Amino acid sequence: RIVYVNGDFVPEEEAKVSVFDRGFLMADAVYEVTSVLGGKLLDFPGHLARLHRSLSELGMGSPVTDAELLAIHRDLVARNGIVDGLVYLQVTRGNPGDRDFTFPDPAVVKPGIVLFTQSKPGLADSPAARAGWRVISIPDIRWGRRDIKTVQLLYPSMGKMMAKKAGVDDAWFVEEGKVTEGTSNNAYIVKGGRIITRDLSSDILHGITRAAVLRFAREAQMTVEERAFTLEEAKEADEAFITSASAFVMPVVEIDGVRLGSGAPGPVATRLRDIYIEESR
Ligand code: PDD
What is the whole-number distance in angstroms between the Cα of residue 1 and the centre of ligand 1? Predict the structure, then answer.
């Protein structure tokens, strides 16, 4: 596999990042994951806009221009022959050459940048989407700026492991009785035909797939309510689902062992998944 590191396309075995890189030492880095379907990048302008927002919230600059970033994405997809899969992009505050809590002077230390691809053949026709995910709920003990897409992913990884240990697919984070989001996705319930998902704030990541799916839902005359919902409401919902760049729209059929509706993927989730994939092709 060919990866991109600080200006160079190199075989992954030859890629090097400093041990003093702040992304490595301090999780001082932001990232984006863009899906590739049939060789095409999905929602790239949205991911680019969110990258800029994450960078600016942390006082970081972009190491390359937007046009260069798009070119690097396309180049990597082509070089690695990716048909279905994803492109991972990470921008770090760079390598100050030592470990220090204060940020280095941006005029002296340039941001670092790494991109790689992952091939996922048949991304759009996942067997998991036909069965739906089962989730457990766990406390949301992440920091308060979940709207910034940083690489501080230890707790989400622990959440995924708790889900795995429980024999299910994912965990939904709960704070003050209300669902924030999934470990790496936005969460939704459907009740009486209304689609309910948490409103945007620093409590959740502003999903790019969320924005697209809500737009499609409204265009299809579905009712969308952007507000926080409780875990209890979720367990009494007719159906549920999650969205993310890598899972698209994924039905959720069980929460903490409580089956939703018939226990099969619901009609709203199924329809939105179909629309999202159709519009992305
Ligand atoms: N995760 N919420 C969290 C906490 C996320 O990590 C993600 C994305 C989302 C969905 O955002 P989007 O629709 O823009 O992918 C919501 C990516 C896919 C990941 O970490 O792999």
Answer: 24
